[in-house]
Amino acid sequence: MRPALLLLPLLASLSALAVTPTAPIPSPALAEQLQRGETTYVLACAMCHGDRLEGVSAPELSGDDFRALYRKLPPRALHDLIRDTMPYDRRGTLSAQEVLDVTAYLLRENGLPLPEGSLTRDTLDQVNEPDPAPTPDQAPAH
């Protein structure tokens, strides 16, 4: 068999990867926040909510139901729930920054919108789902 033929499957898989859409690359500040959020999640949340947010002894923090609920609410709702009730056995032990970081991590893991910089107390109410495309009868007149 010719060596070039052995490379065909590899080239085909690489070209498939090249056209696969990826999530936007976060800003350095947001990337750092997401890393901190993941670390805090693993240390403070995963024991009950699961390593993959699947829920163990507490509700899952991913999936269609989670996304449907938090897509309708501002990120502050999730933030305040975490701040006021988590971790279940140690309420109030997460710092304000850790709560913001975990909130950002959960939003990102569920494909929900985040600000361009980082999630802060001031941006909790500003992060919203993009407006849906207008229907033909709502399209602006030219």
TrEMBL record:
Residues 32-110 form the Cytochrome c domain. InterPro entries: Cyt_c-like_dom, Cyt_c-like_dom_sf. It comes from the Bacteria. PROSITE patterns: CYTC. It holds the Pfam family Cytochrome_CBB3. Residues 113-142 are annotated as: Disordered. Residues 1-18 form the signal peptide. Residues 131-142 have a biased composition (Pro residues). The keyword Nuclease does not apply. This is Cytochrome c domain-containing protein. It comes from Deinococcus radiotolerans.
